[in-house]
Structures are given as C-alpha cells and as structure tokens.
Inverse folding.
C-alpha cells in the first residue's frame, strides 16, 4: 500500500517545456487516470514516475520517500506498456520470472508467484507460449501478469488498451477494473480515451499543454469542468459551446444567444452566476444529453427549462440513441435524442435545453463560472 | 448489362496474344540471367569437377583417371598447410570480427556524440579493396617502414613488431588485417539490429531490475540472433575466398606459412600447369563453402516455414 505525491514537477527538453508545474497525489489504493490529447505530456509524466525520464524540477515521492534520482528498479513499481513490451524470445513464464530472477528471488517463491498470478489472470495454459504465439488480449494479460508477480507499491499503465480492437478493449477495461478492486494497488493509468478514464478512475487528472487542467472525481469533472478545454475533452459527443451574453429577464438571470435572422433567444438561468465577466459576454456549454424535444408538459417537471426552435441539419442514428446536428444561429450543435420521437431531417425542432445542467464559461480566461448561491 | 458483358467478352477474344505475352514477360526478363548462371556457375562447376578427375596438366584433357588428383593434393604438405590455415583463419576471423563489430555497435548505440562520423570511420575499411588493404598493412607490418620503425623513431630502440616476418605469427597479421577491414561491416548490421529493438523492451527490463549487461545478454542479443547468423555466413565466405589479401600482404610467406587454398589453386592452375590437382583443390574449397552455406539455407528455410505456420 502506497501513496504517490508529486509537487511542482517540471520537465524540459532543451528549451521546450513539456511539463509545467504538475501537482498530483494518489492516495493508498487509489486509481488515478491521466487523460489528455496526444502531446499533452501525460506519457512523459508517467515515465518520470517510473524513473525512465529525469526530473528537471520538482519532487516525486512514493510513500513519502523522495525518488527523483532513484533508479527505476529501486522504486518498487511495475509498468504495463502500450506495446506490452513482452520479451519476444522468452515464453510467457520467462517473461514473468525475468524480473524476479534479476532480483534474485528464490525459485520456489517465483513458482508460487507465477501460480498465484496465472490463476488470477487465467493464463495458466499460455505460460509456455512465446508472445508471437499469443493474441492481443492474451499478450495484454501476460503483460499485466508480469507487473503483478512483483507485488509492487505502485502500478503504472501506459495506454494499455489502445492496441486492442474495440470489443476486446471494453472487455479488458472491465477486467482491469475487477483486477484493481481485487488487488487494491495504487494505480496510475495513462490514456487518451476519456471513457476509459471515466469508467476506471477514482480520480481523473485532465492534462493539456503540459499542465493539469483539473484533478477530481470523474462525475465532478464531467458535471463541473474547470474550463472549456476539459468540458470539450470529456464526453462524447462533445459539449456544445454557444457564445452568449448575461442578461436579466423579469429580474431573473438569463443568457441571451443569437439566432438566425438577427433574433435572440433568452435562456433563463435557474441559479445566478457567482461572478460576471467584465463585458457580460459568456460561453454557454450544453452537453448533448441535455437537449431534447420540447414538450409543454415538461415545463412543470423541470426547473430551468429553456426553449428555442432550431432547424435539423443531420440525423445520425446509432441504435440506442440518435444524434442530431442542429443549427443555432451561426453554430452547429449536437444533441442526443431517444430514437422514439427523434428529430427528422429538415424539421424545425422545438428544442428544450436543460439549463440546470448547463455550464457558463468566461470567454477570456476559458474558466468555469460557478453558479448558485454561496 | 448483357451488352456490356458481351462487349468485354469480345475484347478479350480480340486480343488472344495479350494473355500469352503477360504470362511470358517475366520468364523472358529472367532468362538471360538464368542462362548465364546456369552456364557459368553450374556448367563450369561440373566442368571443373570433371577436370579434377582427369589427367590434365598445362591444358585441359579429358582422360578420366578417377580420384588420383585428390590423393596427390592431400599428400602435398603445402595444401595441408593451406587447408589448415583456412580453418584457423576462418575461426579467428569470424569470431573476432563478430566480437569487435558487436562491441563497436554497442558503443555507438549509447547515443555517442558525432555518431555518423564514427559510423563512417568504421565502415570505410570495407570500401577499400583487399589489395590496397593488404599493401597498406604490409607497409605497417614492415620493420623498415611501419609500426616498428615509427615506435623506434620515438625512442624505444628495442621495440620489435614483426608479425609478417615470423612463420608462426604471419597468420595473425592476416587475421588482424581481415578483422580491421570487416568489423565495420559487422558493426553496421549489428547497429541496424540494435536500433530495431523496441525501446519499451529496454525500459521494461530496467523496471524489472536487470543490469545493462543482463539486458543486452538476455533481451537484446537474443532478438538480433538472426543478424549474427547472417553476418557470420557472409564473413565465412569472405574467409574461404581469401586470396588477394594474402597476395598483397605476405605473398603466402614467410615460406609457405600463410598459403591459402585460393592461392594454391591459382598457383597450380596458372603457374605450374597442374590443372587437375588445381581443379581438385577448387572442388575442396567448394566443399568447404557448402558445409557453411547448406545448413544456413536449411535454417532460413525452416525459419520462414515457422513464421508462415505461425501466421
């Protein structure tokens, strides 16, 4: 059981700064996902935790011990690589025992560890095969097995599922979650897939351009994204952003947005914003699932319901739900609808917006404007 | 629909020659090379085999006398030395070239500064012909002009370095020169192999707690084992064909100490007019090559079948 504490971490390659002041901590048994687009520095951060990259500035502590200049093998970590990095000339068993042999673990202990892990991952029949004779999912298991035989303080995963096909990826995701529940090791998991991050992590660190944009529980990150980047990155289809202006209708706060033909729509806010950008300009963020076909009966049930009409440009049925691209002013926004009563192509849709779940952002700082009292 | 189909049908019928042409083109292109290699390689190999069992002397004659030239050959002391030299030289030359080449490749693989320059320096000897290599090194080994002369000029008047003038050490001079020339070639292939190894494997091994030596021994070198075999085979057939290097460096001397089979064949065939025995010696060289190459061919065949079976 172990904790990971990172403070003020910087990484520079020459004059290029790829990590700019990372603060991160993982509590004992926690599953932390580092998520972000490619080039955001998440893999570099993981490599630094593993000791494969040097630290330019800042501190990395495992269980309180400063490990900045400790060699990878002495950090008591195990890592699963994107490419699996199984030794091709060795059998699955040799792959798993290689680390223990390097450390001089007695043979009997090695056997016991292999037995335990092989049973856990159900890879007993594969132990005498070489990686070339294994399928992608089997290699993935062996790679996890190699990490598990060590019983390390910290588990590091570097995009372990991105080389698998879509179906297998979902299965393995569940496997990893089960495994973590059973083993309970502190885990750092790098991914570019926000769904993996949402489903697996106890906390998510969203990274962009070398810094952490938000570090919080998955639902908090999803419901209250710290800024426009996080809001757009988490969720699929992405959150819709509509430029608007803060105003008041009958003394209640509202957002005015421009529609086609010079009209404006007034969208009432159920709770007043805590701060107000200087010129009153805001960006309204609405998730696709908070758009629906307007029905007057709903008005009484939902607080903060706004309504406008929008022409339907594209309809994309996915089976479980139907995505529709709608035109609001100059913008196209995407909504998720129930297939029953989904918008039809060319229809002028009476569009309901659940303003209670909408977010407001400051267009200059890109940061979330909190709503509500307090 | 049926109109269009019958149109295509008609087109096909109108050009019956086109199919035949496309079938014959690859054969026509290959033919000159195939014929040349059939005549010059296989034809003359068989011819040499026949001559080696004839009573030819100055000029080829075709009276079959069986294996007598082979007995003559093997009773000749100079041939025994030559064939012995071949094995001695091949073993040292191949093993040491592999070792030096690998050491250079591993050294350069440590991301040294000016890597391209080092690579070029070590590769250059391969671009120099054996004759030039032999001549230059014969000067370096020469007591009157080479290393000994230079070091004595620096003040060490007792310094002696005379590999080529001693019948017991002259073979090492040839081995050393051969290694100097070929290790860059081995290095280039090994380096390409080392660079093709997935860097994640090395990282994984580091996390697994393996020392750098263990990472090379257990992870990296087994991966590039096929390159070892390929380089060794190429070096071995260099070794068996060794001729001009010896001619330029020691002329087979001192005495007959550094005679090689190829020198011996040349001597018998073109200097002494003993064509049958010379041909027999050439056949023995072919045999030595076959001993090396046949297992290699079988091994590569086995490997590709393994790979195909695995999919």
């Amino acid at each position: 059981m172990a904790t990971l504490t990172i403070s003020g971490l910087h990484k520079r390659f020459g004059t290029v700064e790829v990590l700019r002041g990372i603060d991160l901590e993982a509590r004992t048994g926690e599953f932390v996902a580092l998520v972000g687009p490619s080039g955001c520095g998440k893999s570099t951060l993981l490599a630094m935790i593993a000791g494969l990259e040097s630290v330019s500035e800042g501190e990395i502590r495992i269980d309180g011990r400063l490990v900045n200049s400790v060699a990878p093998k002495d950090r008591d970590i195990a890592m699963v690589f994107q490419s699996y990095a199984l030794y091709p000339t060795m059998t699955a068993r040799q792959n798993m025992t290689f680390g223990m042999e390097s450390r001089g673990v007695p043979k009997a202990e090695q056997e016991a560890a292999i037995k335990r892990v092989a049973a856990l991952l159900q890879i007993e029949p594969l132990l005498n095969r070489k990686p070339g004779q294994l399928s992608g999912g089997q290699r993935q298991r062996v790679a996890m097995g190699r990490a598990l035989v060590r019983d390390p303080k910290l588990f590091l995963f570097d995009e372990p599922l991105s080389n698998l096909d879509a179906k297998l990826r979902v299965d393995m995701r569940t496997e990893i979650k089960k495994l973590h529940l059973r083993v309970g090791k502190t885990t750092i998991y790098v991914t570019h897939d926000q769904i993996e991050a949402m489903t697996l992590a106890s906390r998510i660190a969203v990274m962009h351009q070398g810094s952490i944009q938000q570090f919080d529980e998955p639902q908090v990150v999803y419901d209250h994204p710290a800024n426009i980047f996080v809001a757009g990155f988490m969720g699929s289809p992405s959150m819709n952003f509509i430029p608007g202006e803060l105003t008041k209708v009958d003394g209640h706060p509202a957002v005015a947005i421009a529609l086609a033909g010079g009209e404006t729509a007034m969208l009432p806010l159920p709770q007043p914003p805590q701060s107000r950008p200087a010129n009153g300009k805001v960006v309204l963020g609405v998730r696709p699932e908070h758009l629906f076909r307007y029905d007057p009966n709903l008005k009484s049930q939902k607080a903060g319901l706004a309504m406008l009409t929008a022409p339907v440009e594209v309809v994309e049925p996915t089976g479980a739900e139907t995505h529709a691209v709608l035109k609001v002013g100059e913008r196209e926004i995407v909504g998720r609808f129930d297939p029953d009563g989904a918008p039809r192509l060319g229809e002028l849709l009476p569009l309901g917006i659940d303003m209670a779940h909408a977010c407001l952002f400051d267009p200059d700082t890109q940061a979330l404007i909190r709503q509500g009292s307090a | 629909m049926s109109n269009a189909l019958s149109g295509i049908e008609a087109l096909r019928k109108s050009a019956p020659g086109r199919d035949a042409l496309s079938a014959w083109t690859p054969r026509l292109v290959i033919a000159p090379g195939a014929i040349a290699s059939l005549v010059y390689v296989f034809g003359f190999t068989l011819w040499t085999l026949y001559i080696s069992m004839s009573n030819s002397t100055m000029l080829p004659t075709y009276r079959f006398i069986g294996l007598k030239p082979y007995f003559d050959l093997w009773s000749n002391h100079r041939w025994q030395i030559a064939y012995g030299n071949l094995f001695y030289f091949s073993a040292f030359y191949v093993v040491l070239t592999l070792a030096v080449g690998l050491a250079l490749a591993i050294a350069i693989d440590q991301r040294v500064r000016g890597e391209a320059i080092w690579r070029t320096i070590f590769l250059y000897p391969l671009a120099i012909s054996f004759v030039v290599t032999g001549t230059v090194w014969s000067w370096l080994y020469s007591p009157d002009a080479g290393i000994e002369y230079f070091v004595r000029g620096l003040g060490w008047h007792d310094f002696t370095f005379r590999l080529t003038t001693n019948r017991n050490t002259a073979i090492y001079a040839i081995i050393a020169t051969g290694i100097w020339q070929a290790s860059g070639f081995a290095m280039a292939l090994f380096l390409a192999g080392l660079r093709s190894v997935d860097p994640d494997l090395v990282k994984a091994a580091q996390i697994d707690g393996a020392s750098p030596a263990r990472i090379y021994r257990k992870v990296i070198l087994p991966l590039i084992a096929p390159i070892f075999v390929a380089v060794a085979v190429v070096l071995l057939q260099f070794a068996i064909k060794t001729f001009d290097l010896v001619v330029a460096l020691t002329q087979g001397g001192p005495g007959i100490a550094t005679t090689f089979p190829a020198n011996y064949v040349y001597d018998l065939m073109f200097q002494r007019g003993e064509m049958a025995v010379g041909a027999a010696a050439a056949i023995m060289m072919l045999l030595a090559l076959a001993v090396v190459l046949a297992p290699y061919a079988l091994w590569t065949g086995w490997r590709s079948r393994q790979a195909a079976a695995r999919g």
